[in-house]
Write a structure and sequence with these properties.
globular, about 55% helix, 10 strands, 4-stranded mixed beta sheet, alpha/beta, 6-stranded parallel beta sheet, single chain, 13 helices, N-(1-d-carboxylethyl)-l-norvaline Dehydrogenase, domain 2, Rossmann fold
């Protein structure tokens, strides 16, 4: 994978379809950096804050994408993305680039790409690594697969939202990589929850354990940030458990042989959902034995 750096300063017309936590953060960032942003969401009540921030609120999908140079889909899953593709691909301009940023897994990424080809449109398979904070700050990492010409065309928008663009391959390799990244991230969070709970049971101050990790080779910034949330009992969603579980099941579906660790992650997240933490941050796994 080679990182790519684009020149910044070019302002574009961007449509964002899906304004959940990530879509909203992306829209706000693009508005702040001067891009012309149009937003669409099934639940229109989620659009008002973006309208106040300067986004144009589309009446329907066709209105959202018809003049857009870049269309970003940031929806919950492959089924949700597929439900908008008929209008999206028919209404977007022939030179526009569809940046498919939703985490949909391998099979759905292939299916969506075929639909784009059938409609004569260009799709970048481009999920991101990072949650709402990096999206707000423009420090996401893009995992991108697709034609170089499309990467260049969408470059100013990708740059506004991220600090790294990793070119993974020419097809839909990025969606596959995203599942691997999210599995690693989920495993690290569950491991941190178990370590903190073990510290409590053994009478060792959590701070002592975290001091060992800090500033050393064992310190993973993401896991340390989750440790702070776990200790504070703050489960405000950045990456909700329901989405983490969706991704774990996608990687299970994509493999002929699933590791015992992945099956255990499925069990732990399912237990957290049953315990009522579905919409809370992944850190809430620490609240479930």
């Amino acid at each position: 994978m080679d990182p790519l750096v684009h020149s910044q300063g070019v302002l574009m017309k961007v449509a964002i379809l899906g304004t959940g936590h990530m879509g909203t953060a992306m829209a706000l960032r693009l508005i702040e950096t001067g891009h012309q942003v149009t937003v669409w969401n099934r639940r229109r009540d989620r659009l008002a804050p973006l309208g106040q921030a300067g986004a144009e609120i589309a009446g329907d999908l066709a209105d959202a994408v018809v003049d857009a140079e870049v269309v970003i889909t940031m929806l919950a899953d492959g089924s949700a993305v597929r439900s908008v593709t008929t209008w999206l691909l028919s209404a977007m301009g022939p030179d526009a680039v569809w940046v498919q940023a939703s985490t949909v897994g391998a099979a759905w990424a292939d299916r969506l790409h075929r639909l784009a080809v059938e409609h004569g449109r260009t799709m970048l398979d481009a999920p991101v690594s990072g949650s709402t904070g990096p999206a707000h700050n423009g420090t996401l990492t893009w995992l991108v697969a697709g034609p170089q010409q499309a990467v260049d065309a969408a470059g100013p928008v990708l740059d506004a939202l991220g600090t790294r663009i990793l070119i993974v391959g020419p097809g839909q390799e990025a969606s596959r990589l995203k599942l691997i990244v999210n599995t690693w991230m989920t495993a690290a969070t569950v491991a941190m929850a178990d370590a903190l709970n073990a510290s409590d049971r053994l009478g060792v101050p959590r701070e002592s354990f975290l001091d060992v990790l800090s500033d050393g080779p064992l310190g993973m910034p993401y896991a340390l940030a989750k440790a702070e949330l776990m200790t504070a009992g703050d489960y405000t969603p950045g990456f909700p458990i329901e989405l983490a579980l969706k991704d774990i099941r996608l990687i299970e579906d994509a493999q002929n042989q699933v590791s015992p660790l992945v099956r255990e992650l499925d069990r732990r997240l399912t237990s957290a959902v049953i315990a009522g933490h579905m919409h809370e941050d992944l850190a809430a796994v620490a609240a479930v034995d």
